[in-house]
Amino acid sequence: HLDTRPVVVNWHRYYQSFVGESRRDFDLKTYYLRLAEAAPEEGDLAYLCGRIQSTADDEQRWFERALAAKSPSVHAHRGLAHLRAGAGDFEGALASLDAAEKGGIAPQSLFSVREECLLALGRKADALKACRALPRTSNTDVGPVEREMHLAFIAEGRPGAEAVVRGYIAKLTPEQRKGFADAVAWLKGNISYYEGDVAGYVAVLPAEGQDWMRCMLKGDSAGAAKAISEATGGKLSYAWLLVYLNAVRGKDPAAPSYWEKAVACLAEEKGFNSQLAAHLRGLGRLPVEKIIRAPLQAYEKRVVLTALAVKDPANRSAFLAALAPLKQPRQFPSHILAEVTKSLELGTLPAPGTSF
Predict the structure, then answer these.
(1) Rounded distance between C-alpha atoms, residue 44 and residue 50, angstroms
(2) Residue 194 φ/ψ, nearest 5 degrees
(3) Kind and range of the H or E element at 142?
(4) Do residues 345 and 139 touch, judged by C-beta distance below 8 A?
(5) How far apart are the C-alpha atoms of 260 and 237, rounded to whole Å?
(6) This prediction's pTM
(7) Which helix (H) or strand (E) holds 15?
(8) What is the pLDDT of residues 16-58, one digit of tens each?
């Protein structure tokens, strides 16, 4: 499939992800550079070369080349949308998403970035409308329902979210209503979480799995750290940064050890994350603006910038300002991020004589 022409982009995307994780010794950049240079008319090859670059600037150059090729790549619009959203150009990102969708890319595969941009621009009703326009393949799948319910809560408050749950229940058969009672309880528990009722959410979490989340919700950073180590081998920077912030929130003296684990994981990851690790270890400085404009997904950027606001007092105001348009989501782990951010803004964190 990799040699098929025209290029089957999704096969290459899967291949790049697989090799990037399991064959770190293989030089993907050189491999795709050769492919792209050998067929400059193929925009899809330029796009694929762009998506494995180490810097946003290099990614952008390749995506623009992909669009300018004799056979342009519609996927490059998706790549540019991601970069523009990360840089805070939410209007530009939406234009790129529109172009990608017009070119035939499924709207559901673009929605997470569209949602991020619309919420950042304060267009809550438009985000909800876009969500409701997405195709649904099952009347029992709670994932799309929770997504709609979350946006309804943001746009319309609790009544809007509860209306989504009622709509979900109404589409179930009597037998399905019996079998999906736990799913309905979970949806209602999410509404409780949106409103700040953490205990209400914990009560409806499935009995199996999500141990690290349950520990985080209960403020048990040590338990969350143990669960993450067991579930991922301890190799997930996002999770460690969350444990760190949870420990900071609880004035846990173990917080610095979680920070070190997060930085160690960042160093093992690709692209911006490894560059950030070098920056944090004093091995290569990144300008604050470059950190703020990093092409991270919104859920990850919120965690990274909040952690950096704690660790870097000199640039705290810049990080907090960059977080402002990303504060709309109310899903987990918003209660942790909101509490830490508020404490930083009030100057009550870190406590006098304490270093995190």
Answers:
(1) 10
(2) -55, -35
(3) helix 142-156
(4) no
(5) 10
(6) 0.93
(7) helix 9-22
(8) 988 877 777 788 999 999 999 999 999 999 999 999 998 999 9
